[in-house]
Amino acid sequence: MTVVADSSPLVILSKLGCLDFLSRVFPRVCISAEVHHEVVIAGGGLPGASEVSKADWIEVMAVQNPTGLYSAQRKYGLGPGEMSTILLAKELGANAVLLDDYRARSWRRRKGSKFWGASVCLKPFTCATI
């Protein structure tokens, strides 16, 4: 099973001390180069940056059609992280997509894709109850 994750789920799980939960649930976790940049480079020093950079089980991959990425961003009004996550998931034939952005999840739903995400709020929980 392959999952592609956007930045917010990675940051949220890192804040909770549960990032490794993903590696226990999904045999293959991929992020786009854009998501990696958002979390690790631009987000350096913020929650999630160190955890994601050290997670050797997270595979960073480039979207195969960067021109298509930029045109899709303009067309659908999504950020580079969300749009690259969606396109990478499509390219890989991912089983699940971890998105928290409502517009991105709505777009994926209209396209008939499976996704995992949260848009309202997270109740307090521990890694054992996720």
Mind explaining what this structure looks like?
Helices cover 48% and strands 15% of the residues. The protein has helices spanning 7-15, 20-25, 33-41, 49-54, 66-76, 80-92, 102-110; strands at residues 2-5, 28-32, 58-61, 96-99, 116-117. The longest helix has 13 residues, at 80-92. The protein has a 5-stranded parallel sheet with strand order 3-2-1-4-5. Helix 3 packs across helix 6 and helix 5 packs across helix 6 (80-92). It is of the alpha/beta class and 130 residues long.
Quick structural summary:
This protein is an alpha/beta fold and 130 residues long. Helices cover 48% and strands 15% of the residues.
**Beta-strand fraction estimate:** 5-15%
Poorly predicted residue ranges: 113-130
- Give the ordered list of helices and strands: EHHEHHEHHEHE
Number of helices: 7
Reconstruct the topology from this structure.
Layout: E1 2-5, H1 7-15, H2 20-25, E2 28-32, H3 33-41, H4 49-54, E3 58-61, H5 66-76, H6 80-92, E4 96-99, H7 102-110, E5 116-117
Parallel strand pairs: 1-2, 1-4, 2-3, 4-5
Helix pairs in contact: 3-6, 5-6
